[in-house]
Amino acid sequence: MDQWRRGGLVVREATIRDLDTIARLEEEAFPQDQVSRRSFAYHLRSPLKPVIAVTVEGELAGYALLALSKGGRSARIYTIAVDPRFARRGVGTTLIAAAESFARRHGRGRITLEVRYDNKPAITLYERCGFQPFGEHEDYYADGATALRYKKTLDRQAFGPREQLAS
Ligand SMILES: CC(C)(COP(=O)(O)OP(=O)(O)OC[C@H]1O[C@@H](n2cnc3c(N)ncnc32)[C@H](O)[C@@H]1OP(=O)(O)O)[C@@H](O)C(=O)NCCC(=O)NCCS
Predict the structure, then answer these.
(1) Model-level pTM?
(2) Opening angle at CA 50, ends 22 and 46, nearest 5
(3) β 74-82/110-116 pair status
(4) Which of 84, 85, 109, 117 stands 20 to 30 A from 30 (CA)?
């Protein structure tokens, strides 16, 4: 994946050097149902490069972990979080644009995700980015909360953010 820019934000593949920051942000963002440090370490070493980072002035401001269903048509946003110090600056929106680019690069025409029914900031973000609800998983989280399922069909004609490659 090439590094690209969007305003003051830089998008790049996350690497194992980002592990401490990502594991800390994940812990702070999710009181339960976190992706473990060990799991991030595994994904950060994967040749698939499924962890995307957004940085601001060299500092990691947010990340997304993506997954590809085996032989399927979809990519899935497994987790996404933004450092609260960089909230409401478009980091989440940029991570979603990068996830779409990842999905297209892997020949996937659709992105899916799950979100807690009461996570209003994330639901607002996803709906603003064009995701649509398509079902629920009851008793999905450790505390029994319901997950809402969202999907977005990707327009194959549209170009992703590779148009704006950083120089
Ligand atoms: C949800 C999250 C990723 C949003 O990241 P972000 O970088 O602040 O998002 P953006 O700046 O791209 O916001 C885009 C839009 O989403 C909506 N939004 C984002 N945060 C919001 C909030 N706290 N309250 C209401 N709407 C919000 C707004 O419509 C916002 O546009 P605006 O700022 O012009 O009003 C971030 O709050 C986060 O990491 N939360 C904790 C982890 C989490 O819940 N992850 C999702 C798990 S499914």
Answers:
(1) 0.94
(2) 95
(3) parallel
(4) 109
The count of structural domains within the chain is 1
Q: Is the CB of 56 under 6 A from ligand 1?
A: no
Task: Check if 156 has its Cβ closer than 6 Å to any atom of ligand 1.
Answer: no
The amino acid sitting at 161 is P
Least Cα distance to 54 among 20, 98, 19 occurs for: 98
pLDDT tens digits along 43-63: 999 999 999 999 999 999 999
CA 9 – CA 89 distance, rounded (Å): 9
C-alpha 44/C-alpha 31 separation (Å) is 22
Contact in structure between 20 and 13 (CB atoms under 8 Å): no
What CATH number has the domain bearing residue 121?
A: 3.40.630.30
Of 32, 35, 78, 82, the residue with max ligand 1 atoms within 8 A of its CB, to mutate for a pocket test, comes to: 82
Q: Which of 34, 124, 137 to mutate to test the pocket of ligand 1 (most atoms within 8 A of CB)?
A: 124
For 152, the domain range is 4-164
Residues 6+ apart with CB under 8 A from 107: none
Three-state SS for 116-128 is ECCCHHHHHHHHH
